[in-house]
Amino acid sequence: MVNQSQKTVYRLVLTGGPCGGKTTGQSRLSTFFENLGWKVFRVPETATVLLSGGVKFADLSPDEAVKFQENLLKTMIQIENTFFELGRTCQRNCLIICDRGAMDASAFISKEKWEELLSANNWNSVELRDNRYNHIVHMVSAANGAEDFYSTEDHACRSEGMELARELDYNAAAAWIGHPYFDVIDNSTDFDKKMNRLIACVCQRIGIDTGDRLNVNSKKRKFLVKTPLPPESEFPPFQDFDVVHNYLQSDFRKAQVRLRKRGQKGHWSYIHTVRKFHPTNGQSVEVRTQLTHRDYLNQLPQRDDAHFTIFKKRRCFIYNNQYYQLDIYRQPTHPRCRGLVLLETYSAAYDQDALLASLPKFLTIEKEVTGDPAYSMYNLSLKEDWKTSKKYYSGSDANGQAKWSMNGYTGDKINCHGDKINGHGGDKIHGPGEKDNGYDGKMNGHHKKNAHGPVSNRIMVNGEAHDAELKKFKNHGVDLQTPKIPKKVALKT
């Protein structure tokens, strides 16, 4: 029996186009986690339950199709809630595998009808997509990259041709763009390895060490992007988010602790992250806990005054079956972050030229900066001069010991934006009146007002927006309908 305060309830969605391996993937995941002693629940695909009753989607009128999707979504939510409640009361670690999730319904109706459906039921995409599930895995259809193996014979409710299957696969992926933990499992390997990559991906997100059993090669890669960015029309379908990071007070030599607020259109999700350092080998483990709005505000006063608040615009998109996050740093923050744009993805490619060639063609990549301490968000947010700071994290030495100084860095430029490495040279980043990445200074709503309402008639000093939010909370004591059950997720890095 697992201690209830340490128990993990992990809510996973398997989505994707027809013949992508979702059914087999559920079975393989169930066997793997049951062998680890976990309780596994498998939520059936609601559409299959309804369609097997004689409903033919092609026979429905446009209005009937929208109403069908609305009722399907209501049914799905109720079925899922039943399993989520079982997971909450289960005495063991619990994996809940959902065969598709709430956002999949948006792939089958127009964007306008989807927005009307959300409004009519008082739903929003942040709650349905980001707060409801811990992790989304998109299983790419065999119609996209493994055409010889595409078949509809073994599924009573499936009749899609190859082209339609590709379209449905694309729409299913687009519906989930923006979830903070979204992975794509493509057909670049044989089917058995595809299943191993699925299991490895889920284990990595949860923080389960699989050793060499699943041959996990993918790691997080980070790239410096040259500005200005191309117009939005050159991007594939994307989702934009406002992201706010605050580092909290901690013994920084043992752990980095931060809060993240991430949202769209005034709806937010909140994450507490602890990055712990191993005392001898230099490796680190991140433990993430989803918070309510109340919990977030209760922890916000613990902000570390040695760090600026980091404001970003995060753009999420898929390019060539690869999921990307483009982080555009916003003001107010340290001058070293002005004009800074970083692209992140997960890749197993070892050949640097091949890796760079696979990146989005519409972006100009300066260089890879994976592991470069000059592009660590922890270091970028420091208020102190990097050359003299004792908090600057410069990675691990040859013996695996963490290093906490620059060890001779001389303040050379770290990127094409013209900042000195410590950011205290007073250099201009842009000419007078120029915009940062196409924005006119009204970044993240911090000119005259922020995302939580009017605050002042001037640009805020870094962090004041959160003080205003705390004041509002103390006056009203409201909770913005974030799930009440904290979900702890450990991720090895």
In short:
The protein has 493 residues and is an alpha+beta fold.
Features:
NadR/Ttd14 AAA domain-containing protein; P-loop_NTPase; 17 strands; 5-stranded parallel sheet; alpha+beta; globular; GTP binding; 493 residues; disordered C terminus; 10-stranded antiparallel sheet
Polypeptide structure, described:
The protein has eleven helices and 17 strands. It is α+β, with helices and mostly antiparallel strands and about 500 residues long. The strands form three sheets. The protein has a ten-stranded antiparallel β-sheet with strand order 14-6-13-12-11-7-8-9-10-17. It has a five-stranded parallel β-sheet with strand order 2-3-1-4-5, with helices on both faces. A two-stranded antiparallel ribbon has the order 15-16. The longest helix is centred in the N-terminal third of the chain and has 28 residues, at about 60-90. It is globular, with a radius of gyration of 23 Å. Mean pLDDT is about 80; it is low at about 410-460 and about 475-493.
Number of β-strand runs: 17
Query: What percent strand?
Result: 15-25%
Distance between the termini: 28 Å
Q: Helix segment count?
A: 11
Shape: globular
Taking all residues together, what is the mean pLDDT?
Answer: 78
What sequence of helices (H) and strands (E) makes up the elements? EHEHHEHHEHEHEEEEEHEEEHEHEEHE
Protein name: NadR/Ttd14 AAA domain-containing protein
Pfam families: AAA_28
GO molecular function, one term: GTP binding
Organism: Parnassius mnemosyne
